[in-house]
Amino acid sequence: MEIILVRHTSVDVPKGTCYGQTDVEVAPTFEQEAALTKQALAEYVPFDRVYTSPLKRAVKLAAYCGYPDATPDARLMEMAMGDWEMQRYDDITDPSLQEWYEDYMHLPTPGGESFPVLRARVAAFLDELSAKPYRRVAVFAHGGVLISAGLYAGLFAEQHAWDHLVPFGGLQRIEI
H or E element: which one contains 162? Predict the structure, then answer.
């Protein structure tokens, strides 16, 4: 099965803000960014099924691209950043921040999730999807979800995963 993963467009929060699962607004540049995403996505149409994170930054892009009835799935939400949600990384005074920076691929944020928990959520979604009779599926989601899906599909190794972060509005293709 071919899966086209779509990262949401830019968000309307200051750069360096930890927004994770907060349901933030899209940036004022949404229409311009979304038009480019829709154009890139046209190469892969039609889809047998379209899924989206329930967060509005993904839902809005799915609707703009022609999928207002995309199926929401909470497993496609970004990693929960817990106590750090909506704080600028530079302003976080939590003493565990440096420890997390040193091992963010394994440690949870205070009151939030770890990357392995996010990966497990995405893997459960993809495992379930792989049992469906679809040939091509679109998934509108978030950077961490796309990294997790890329790891699941063997596109890259964990130690280099974040080197493969898809830009806002960008696409990632996997086969499962």
Answer: none
Neighbours of 25 (CB within 10 A): 12
Angle at 40 between CA 36 and CA 57, to 5 degrees: 60
Cα–Cα distance measured from residue 100 to residue 107, given in angstroms and rounded to the nearest whole number? 6
Q: What is the pTM of this model?
A: 0.96
Tell me if 40 sits within 8 A of 173, measured CB to CB. no
Residue whose structure tokens are 């809005």: 60
State residue 123 phi and psi, 5-degree precision. Answer: -65, -40
- Residue 38: which of 71, 66, 4, 16 has the closest Cα? 66
Q: What is the pLDDT of residue 155?
A: 96
The partner residues of 5 in beta bridges, in order of sequence, read 139, 172
CA distance 111 to 82: 4
Q: What is the mean pLDDT of the chain?
A: 97
Beta-carbon contacts of 61 under 8 Å, excluding residues fewer than 6 positions away, are 6, 8, 9, 26, 34, 37, 140, 169
Question: Quick one: tokens of 172?
Answer: 């990632």
Spatial CB neighbours of 40, under 8 Å, sequence gap ≥ 6: 170, 171
Instruction: Give the burial class of 22: count Cβ atoms within 10 A of its Cβ; 0-12 exposed, 13-18 middle, 19 or more buried.
Output: middle
